[in-house]
Design brief:
It holds the Pfam family WD40_RLD. It comes from Heterostelium pallidum (strain ATCC 26659 / Pp 5 / PN500). Keywords: Repeat. InterPro entries: RCC1-like_dom, RCC1/BLIP-II, Reg_chr_condens, Ub-ligase/GTPase-reg. The chain is mainly beta and about 525 residues long. It has two domains: about 400 residues, Regulator of chromosome condensation 1/beta-lactamase-inhibitor protein II (Methylamine Dehydrogenase, Chain H), CATH 2.130.10.30; about 60 residues, no CATH class. The protein is about 5% helix and about 40% strand. It contains four helices and 36 strands. The chain has a four-stranded antiparallel β-sheet with strand order 4-3-34-33. The protein has a four-stranded antiparallel β-sheet with strand order 5-6-7-8. It has a four-stranded antiparallel β-sheet with strand order 9-10-11-12, with no helix packed on it. A hairpin with a 3-residue loop joins strand 13 and strand 14.
């Protein structure tokens, strides 16, 4: 169970490691204020939800992407080779020029992006080989592992010190010594708690291995928590494995027992756990067999299952209301329980102790621990035990398209390509050029004209993917590309331009409406003219 000791957003999440008679490492989750460098998780509001891995595809080949990061420099997660936190969004430059990003994530020690051509770049601290590279090394820049080059990756999710990889429905490289079948689930990194799903006695490794138990299953969704894993099949069945102390994988809960030490009982923090604390192979979640599940999201100590009908079920730690199932179910929720959402859910994201829900209407709801203003409801202390509407967006007519919950901060993306953040501001992860907390959403002004199209909140970092229209795309749509100058130009091929592309051109290439005076060509008349300042590609 979580033990809430400090309200500071700089606290650590750590395991209190003990040993049973077999000398197997076990542990229970704790919150503490200890900044000891030997902690499993270093400084920061430590959490990453696999729901933060948001995927989005662009069909326009004339658009390339940029990655911007801000927040804590710890463990080299920013990919900027800096020893200083970034209080403002900073472009990650050590990436291919024609980059097209499919998904992005930042976790406890590692960050990654998956490109649209299925290449996986990772950087940060490779403590357990989770990057498919030699262990205990720091990679300050985005690195493409030779091991991952051999895999056609469809999805990737990062846990504390392990990685889950779902391959596409194409042939695997023969180096895995597997039959050439459709997509498979691979795991790599730490296996201390069975989170790799490889079976009893299997150790962790920096080489990806196939999760054999799911070989005959066609998977559509995977998720990775702190030390637990989940997967959903095309038929809607859900499997869970790994650490289960809070019931986060929907299996039989651990039973505690007293342990005698030197003739005396040890204190309550030094409990030994039965084997039910861990499940080292994927195991069907029994309570969901009659419900078709479409997607899974994993949090630190919990998991969320979204049904094909749009209902949400949660399980795991609910001490601060993270699950949104009500204040009558505090503590462990060991069976999937329906979340009290007033609307159908389009997407959700679970942070360390709070959760964001995006409804199909575009409204945003939050629940969980209210500290540091991470819920965005205007206060810094009150917990919410059911999803509660964040009024800011509704009252200001802002439609949200993505949500992402981090360690103690929150992010949303709007349909206008704007990014809003709130919560704990330590390390600059809100992107407001300060470390001040905010209990209401605030616009990240430095990204206002960069056409953001993907967000990911990490433990103490933030990631934003922006689109850049290339010079060739301007030629393709009929814009006369000349030397940099200000002039009013016609859009002769407007009939095949949609407003999304127009907005992209305006945001990424400093195109502004109007001629020499705005009155002659107002923004509302973009159907005919734009005022432009061409920026070299």
């Amino acid at each position: 169970m979580f033990r809430l000791i400090s309200s500071s957003c700089s606290r650590n999440l750590n395991r209190n490691v003990v040993f049973n008679n077999n000398n197997n490492v076990r542990g229970s989750y704790l919150l503490n204020g200890n900044n000891n460098s030997n902690n499993i998780v270093r400084k920061g509001c430590s959490f990453y939800s696999s729901g933060n891995s948001i995927e989005q595809n662009d069909d326009d080949d004339s658009v390339r992407h940029q990655l911007w990061m801000f927040g804590s420099c710890n463990d080299a997660k920013l990919g900027l080779a800096t020893d200083h936190d970034k209080l403002l969004p900073t472009k990650v430059t050590h990436l291919p020029h024609r980059l097209r990003i499919k998904s992005a994530q930042s976790t406890w020690q590692t960050s990654c992006i998956l490109t649209e051509d299925n290449q996986l770049f990772m950087w940060g601290t490779n403590s357990a080989g989770q990057m498919g590279l030699p262990q205990n090394q720091i990679f300050k820049f985005p690195t493409l592992s030779d091991m991952f080059k051999m895999i056609d990756i469809d999805q990737v999710h990062l846990g504390r010190s392990f990685t889950l990889i779902l391959t596409s429905n194409k042939l695997l490289n023969n180096s895995f010594n597997k039959s050439e079948e459709q997509g498979k689930l691979l795991s790599v990194g730490s296996n201390d708690f069975g989170q790799l799903g490889l079976g009893e006695g299997m150790r962790g490794s920096s080489t990806p291995r196939v999760v054999e138990k799911l070989n005959n299953q066609e998977l559509v969704s995977i998720g990775a928590g702190f030390d637990h894993s989940m997967a959903v099949t095309k038929s809607g069945h859900t499997f869970g494995w790994g650490y289960n102390v809070e019931g986060q994988i929907g299996q039989r809960i651990v039973e505690y027992k007293r342990v005698e030490s030197a003739g005396e009982n040890v204190d309550s923090m030094e409990n030994s756990m039965t084997p039910d604390a861990e499940y080292n192979i994927p195991t069907l979640v029994p309570e969901m067999e009659s419900i078709k599940v479409a997607k899974v999201y994993c949090g630190y100590d919990c998991s969320f299952l979204v049904s094909a009908r749009g209902n949400v079920y949660a399980m795991g730690n609910n001490e601060t209301g993270t699950l949104g199932v009500g204040d009558d179910k505090l503590g462990r929720v060991t069976k999937p329980t329906k979340v009290a959402m007033p609307e159908k859910v389009k997407q959700l994201s679970c942070g360390a102790t709070h959760t964001l829900f995006l409804a199909e209407s575009g409204r945003v709801y939050s629940c969980g621990w209210g500290s540091e203003g991470r819920l965005g409801l205007g206060d810094n202390t009150t917990n919410r035990y059911v999803p509660t509407l964040i009024p800011f967006f509704h009252e200001n007519g802002i439609r949200v398209t993505q949500v992402s919950a981090g360690g103690a901060h929150s992010m949303v993306l709007t349909d206008e390509g704007q990014v809003y953040t709130w919560g704990c501001g330590e390390n600059g992860k809100l992107g407001h050029n300060s470390e001040t907390n905010s209990n209401i959403p605030q616009l990240v002004k430095s990204l206002a004209k960069r056409n953001a199209i993907l967000i990911a909140a990490g433990i103490d970092t933030s990631m934003v993917r922006c689109s850049i229209a290339t010079t060739s795309s301007l030629i393709d749509v009929g814009l006369a590309v000349t030397a940099p100058t200000w002039k009013c130009i016609d859009l002769p091929t407007f009939q095949r331009l949609d407003r999304t592309l127009l907005r992209l051109l305006l945001a990424s290439l400093s195109l502004f409406s109007g001629t020499t005076t705005p009155e002659r060509c107002p923004y509302a008349q973009l159907h005919r003219w734009v005022h432009m300042d061409i920026v070299a590609d």
